[in-house]
Amino acid sequence: VEKTSGNGVHIAGHVIQTVSNAVTSRQTSSSSSFVATxxxxxxxxxxxxxxxxxxxCSTYSTEGAGRGIICTIYRGSTNVTGSxxxxxxxxxxxxxxxxxxxxxxxxxxxxxxxTSATTYTLYFRSSNDAGAVEIPPLNSVAQTIILQxxxx
Length: 152
Known about the structure:
152 residues, six-stranded antiparallel β-sheet, 0% helix, mainly beta
């Protein structure tokens, strides 16, 4: 129970707030540079020392031998994983030209150190310039992003 009205309960490890967003738009890219998707959500942390758990569920499709998808998460214009190689990496069989569909499931913990509105976005790129990647493979497939502020 709050001691003072309006201050909120702040217990380390507990969820302070949850924000989610589901989108169904499809994007295609052959770029070897990261491209933003519409899978995004904005959270305004109540405390500057909170951690944000980012959970993303989506699907992808790629076609052709050795082609694949690489995904990462951006906070605004910053790649929070700090990796150009991404955090999800899936390739088709090097000897197969068949279409491959799969899931993109990401959980990542960030420390934004702010109480300002903060937007997280799923970015993706082709694993090589020769192959197009679709995320998701069908227009009606829902992609979800969930942001949870965790008290410290």
